Amino acid sequence: MKTGYARVSTEDQKMDLQLNALKEAGCDRVFTDHGVSGAGFERPGLDGVIKALRKGDTLVVWRLDRLGRSLVRLVQFVDELGRKGVEFQSLSENIDTTSSGGRLVFHLIAALSEFERALISERTRAGMDAARRKGLHLGRPPALTKQQQKAVYRAVRVDGLTVPAVAKHYDVDPRTIRRIVNQLKAEAKTLV
Q: Catalytic annotation on 92?
């Protein structure tokens, strides 16, 4: 039995194109999620599909991105289907795991996706390392200026004010004050 799944992200989008394509592909039933993001895999329509699928069935989607955004998670999902004896078909990408060629195409896409993710990660790390070597600060700017940080350190370590009181005065989280105090304390030890 062929079971279709269609999804649109916003309420004003139409899924007629997907529904027509799934009907033409011979789907006996179609589950939908209307106005639901593809970021996660917990969706009412998709949950219904998973419960309804049986060994020998085929899950059909119009495009891979209708099932989910993360290609890694998509690969895991399709592998889980395969272990249950359920095949997978994506109409737009011509992926059909009922054939050996379709399984090969799907696994090639998965391998390329993993490779691309690794490249992005490597480039990001290299860029961050280069920025650090140039002395650039990464991340958000500090909540307090250097002068304010020294005043915070004095208030807590010398004047004996409590961390929550100092945090309230500077309108920051107490963790910020603790981090500043610990950092300046460590720096003072290295100077001695």
A: no
